[in-house]
Amino acid sequence: MFNNKIAANLVITIILVGVIAGIAINTLQSSVNQTSKVAYGQSYVPVPGADVYASGDNGGGFAVADAQGNYDINNYLGTGNYSETASAPGFIDQTIGNVAVTAGAETTGVDIYLSVSGGISGTVTSAVTGAPLANVLVYAYNATGEDNSGGYAITDSNGNYQIIQNLPSGTYNVTVESIAGYMGFTLSSISVTAGAMTSGVNFALAASGTITGTVTVANTGTSLQGGNC
Fold first, then answer.
1. Tens of pLDDT along 9-54?
2. Is pLDDT at 136 greater than 70 in this prediction?
3. Helix/strand/coil (H, E, C) string of 101-148?
């Protein structure tokens, strides 16, 4: 009988401790959500350097998250409703809406949670010479058209590129913009998985044809400056 009372009291004590701990955790979480403005990644890890933009009824602003992911947009925000977008390499852009702002007051608790992006990488070269092509725009867009996901990159001096932002898992078309002397090209149905790099998406651009001539003023034959092409 005595042991039964001890066991019962122990169970009651454990339950009370659990309830108190639960209340404390909920209170802490509520407090954090009401006072913080943080850009978070997976598992609530802060995203330092994230760009955060606000735009709305009466202005717009911009801030960069600090080492703890904290940001503070404090200019050009009049009273009104705003949307905020957070953007960072390695993550998928995230937008939240209906952020109410009052001029002269601070709107707190506007935390933004970013999901990890997939990646696409490769090399752009000349099909004629095999030489790498620098400063070429490469962009990826969702192949199904179901959303506006997609990203871009510029090739470096070795022709290499990495698109590492705003690519959730899915299928993408990857396009190289045409540049002087070369044709543009698109590779279709490139599979991407969030958190992983799809590599080897390479382009060898074919040479473009050339058209030349002169642009003149009708009836006078006077050439126009910059008209040769």
1. 333 232 223 332 332 223 222 322 223 466 566 667 999 999 999 9
2. yes
3. ECCCCCCCCCCEECCECCEEEEEEEECCCCCECCCCEEEEEECCCCCC
CATH number at residue 149: 2.60.40.1120
Strand partners, 152: 139
What amino acid occupies position 157? S
Query: How far apart are the C-alpha atoms of 138 and 151, rounded to whole Å?
Result: 9
Phi-psi sector, 80: left (phi>0), alpha (psi -120 to 50), beta? left
Q: Quick one: pLDDT at residue 41?
A: 67
Mean pLDDT estimate for the chain: 82
Does residue 109 sit in the same domain as residue 124? no
Contact 176, 156 (CB under 8 A): no
pTM of the entire structure? 0.74
Backbone angles phi, psi at 153, to 5 degrees: -155, 160
Question: Quick one: 95 and 123 in the same domain?
Answer: no
